[in-house]
Write a structure and sequence with these properties.
Two copies of one chain form a homodimer. The first copy, chain A, is built from twelve helices and no strands. With 236 residues, chain A is mainly alpha-helical. The longest helix of chain A is centred in the C-terminal third of the chain and has 21 residues. Chain A is flat and about 60 Å long. The structure holds a DNA duplex (30 and 30 nucleotides).
Amino acid sequence: MPKQAEKVRRAPLSRDRILRAAVALADGTGIESLSMRNLAQDLGVVPMALYKHVANKDELVDGMIDVVVAEIDPPEPGDWKQAIRRRILSARQVLLRHPWAPLAIESRSTATPAVLAYLDSTVGALRAGGFSTDLAHHVMHAMGSRVLGFSQELFDATRQAGRSGATVPEPPADLPPEMAARFPNLAAIATAASHDGDSVVGPGCDDQFEFEFALDLLLDGIERLHRNGWTSHRTL
Amino acid sequence: MPKQAEKVRRAPLSRDRILRAAVALADGTGIESLSMRNLAQDLGVVPMALYKHVANKDELVDGMIDVVVAEIDPPEPGDWKQAIRRRILSARQVLLRHPWAPLAIESRSTATPAVLAYLDSTVGALRAGGFSTDLAHHVMHAMGSRVLGFSQELFDATRQAGRSGATVPEPPADLPPEMAARFPNLAAIATAASHDGDSVVGPGCDDQFEFEFALDLLLDGIERLHRNGWTSHRTL
DNA sequence: CTTGACTGGTGTACGGCGTACACCTAGCCT
DNA sequence: AGGCTAGGTGTACGCCGTACACCAGTCAAG
């Protein structure tokens, strides 16, 4: 009875199974080699079978984003600043596991419900901390994508990993000399960072440190505005 | 002599002409309808002709980015804070004219020389203002993509325009009621913004204001660190 | 003045993509 | 038993980027 054997060996395909396989595929080989055909092959199924469960590729990616967002820790009660800080750092950890996600999230034109729910609960934490809707609004804009755990670096190794698959840790790699000559200021900060042994090792600078530096810069500024009863009706 | 007529009516195609046509096409119809074939047609030429001037599509996009970056005002001498603020706001104006550019820039894995030159001169402005290489380094990370004039909004009308072509100004559009019920905190800040007549009109919130709010929040925080002689060897 | 190399536009073709559409099959309800 | 339906299949279309062979001028060297 090969019939039964086949049935047993292949779980019956579902939106959920498709999304998980898609996330795994993107994690492993990069978002740009995620195609309906590859994904179907991974699932042992013909490409068109997927369309019985997802409307099209865009909707597939939306679903993948929701899977990722669901991995972020739920909010904890307590001081707004600590709560938001912890949540954002948790989001960052999640996105480090899914390096394709930032680009995917940004390339969507409208947020998915799961992202909206995440943002909503973050605003909730601010309001619970006594923020006016006015200030809460501007704060959300100011945080931008950082609230979802990624800073938009122009020069981001993680981003690169998202494209080409698993991260291969690169050698420290100072700028090549002709670059250093053309961009002396970049060279200065790059070499300072990579030779500054006590806070960094390896790839030149400590991404986690940079992320927290920027995050705290924003949070401290926000706290100051909040304490001073800032409102958009007066000047900053 | 149709030969000469043809020659006159069609300029001889060059990398520069291709890049400009590509930027115009992306500005007009969105980056996702920029294909080698469409572009060639706009130029009255067969697709493969482009490959005599650009190596491939990725390199084409790199060139387009350089065209855009070249439109940013050159740095002005003077107080670092004013200089950087002005420059970044200029970058923002440029990117508003090319809404496809942020996504294009971010999707590149390595920065183009023009972008590096821009970043280098920005670092130069900081160092001229007395910043240590250490602090300048962290500042660049903290600013992230904002230094190039775009904040990474999760909910960005401009981004949408970049995908589908010219911006059609939408009606004010409060959240639909079932959204408001599911995301009460987002609803609160959204309706507050769109009904708050004295600072905003139209699409719900004033993007320029939000951008400057975040920018000044960062710049003020940075200024404070700078005044206090901050260094990464001590705690923040 | 010929010739041969070089530059730049052309035509054809291939493999990959997303997905429309018709089909088939198994299980379930009546 | 008969038909409905959910879900997997096969084929096909139009788009994409681009490899490769070709060909028309231009221009320098013989």
